Amino acid sequence: MIVLGVETSCDETAAAIVAEHEGKLRVLAERVASQVELHARFGGVVPEIASRAHLEALPHLVKAVLDEAGIGGSELDEIAVTQGPGLVGALLVGTSFARAFGAAARVPVRPVHHLEAHLFAPLLAGKAIRYPMLTLLVSGGHTMLVVTHAPGEHEVLGQTLDDAAGECLDKAARVLGLGYPGGPAIARLAKEGDPARFALPRPMRDKGLDFSFSGLKTAIVHAWAASAKDEQAKKDLAAAVEAALVDVLVAKTMRALEVVRPAMLVAAGGVAANERLRRALAEAAQAKGVSLVLPPLRYCTDNAAMVAAAGIVRARAGLAIPADWDAAPRLALA
User: Fold this and answer.
1) Which of 89, 159, 162, 191 has a CA between 20 and 30 Å from the CA of residue 68?
2) Residue 74 domain boundaries
3) Are residues 166 and 107 in the same domain?
């Protein structure tokens, strides 16, 4: 089975060709066009700019991956495209292109949930999915704990009540003058900082499975205002922010293991690329005797290979392509 994946949910335009044979996935070609520089001066993603950038880049990326893979459009078995959630204009660019391409090549087009695509990212590292699978899904706009019982069958155990972990990192980066996106900038600075210098709160760490990071964002603003605002203070606060987030994410994930005993534990999404989080999760999972799978760094952030992978999983599970669907910016996972 050969699938073209298309991803345009936010600020990454991506296309990939993924082949499946006897349950094994192989990425034949992939391209990602980042929009970070376009949005950096605004401190966040501007939807209209994102949509226009997708419109310009996507046709070239699709042609590039087809050429590299040596695949003609009519040789595809399916096209998998992100349906949502995301920015509506950006999603419409991807879904409209996929439908037009599919109609021209006479290839079926399968809508894919962006978050479900993250859940199946481990397949791209050659890992077989074992159910039930518990995933800590942490990205720019989402923080949740999800149990996957089967393809298309997801149960949300807990999610953020306000701001996501990625949004907290972006806020901290703006406060410290580090620019956008915040996660990588905070991680780089935190390596040289003392996380114990600033006593930041761990919101809801010891309560339930839901998350809340708005209070932490406020505490970061006050901590910086009261500091010397020198370079070392910047490094120490970055380290404290990272430590606070990781403490909460790991504690909640370990508590979820009391609710469900998974066959495997996964961390996915852009924030799952954070080194401190990956290390802390690995240590905690080992102590619990749970098998942890961490996707390669390049498959934590938004990409089209994971979209194709999710499409393949659904197709192999016999899940039909909906007869009527469209871009859905507020698409629920469960």
Assistant:
1) 89
2) 2-124+298-316
3) no
Q: What is the CATH number of the domain that holds 271?
A: 3.30.420.40
Q: What's the pLDDT tens digit per position in 272-327?
A: 999 999 999 999 999 999 999 999 999 999 999 999 999 999 999 999 999 999 99
Structural domain tally of the chain?
2
For the segment 12-30, what is each residue's pLDDT rounded down to a tens digit? Answer: 999 999 999 888 999 999 9
As beta bridge partners, residue 9 has none
> Which residues are within 8 A (CB) of 327 and not within 5 positions of it... i.e. 6 or more apart?
83, 84, 88, 91, 92, 94, 95
Residues of the chain with pLDDT under 50: none
Distance from C-alpha of 303 to C-alpha of 299, rounded to nearest angstrom: 7
What is the C-alpha to C-alpha distance for residues 259 and 208, in angstroms, rounded to an integer?
A: 11
Q: Is residue 327 part of a domain?
A: no
223 and 291 in a single domain? The answer is: yes
Q: Is 330 helix (H, G, I), strand (E, B) or coil?
A: coil
Position 172 in a domain: yes
Q: Can you give the pLDDT at residue 334?
A: 74
HEC readout, 56-118: HHHHHHHHHHHHHHCCCHHHCCEEEEEEECCCHHHHHHHHHHHHHHHHHHCCCEEEEEHHHHH
Q: What is the pTM of this model?
A: 0.94
